[in-house]
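Figure 3 (text version): structure tokens given as input.
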């Protein structure tokens, strides 16, 4: 599950209350991995992570639209590989791309 800014703040509140990562994950109904990822990071780090990851996708927005209009049934894996070919400096992981 993707953690929003509100979710990040809730994780930090539970941390301040002394809850463990496991209890925090249980209360928020998210994975322990998601809690652990943001447990020791600052809010600035959280927002910067999401800002830079969306910049990768925004730079390719027109390309995505063109591909989807031309090939309406294109599979996401094909779109991913076509993007990698068209933009060699594209540094988005497969997992993030498919989300």
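Below: residues designed for each position.
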């Amino acid at each position: 599950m993707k953690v929003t800014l509100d979710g990040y703040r809730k994780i930090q509140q539970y941390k301040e209350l002394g809850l463990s990562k496991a209890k925090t994950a249980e209360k928020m109904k998210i994975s322990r991995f998601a809690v652990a990822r943001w447990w020791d990071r600052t809010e600035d780090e959280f927002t910067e992570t999401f800002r830079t990851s969306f910049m990768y996708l925004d730079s390719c927005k027109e390309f995505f639209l063109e591909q989807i209009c031309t090939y309406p049934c294109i599979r996401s894996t094909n779109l991913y590989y076509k993007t990698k070919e068209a933009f060699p400096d594209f540094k988005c992981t497969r997992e993030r791309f498919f989300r």
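The chain is about 75% helix and 0% strand.
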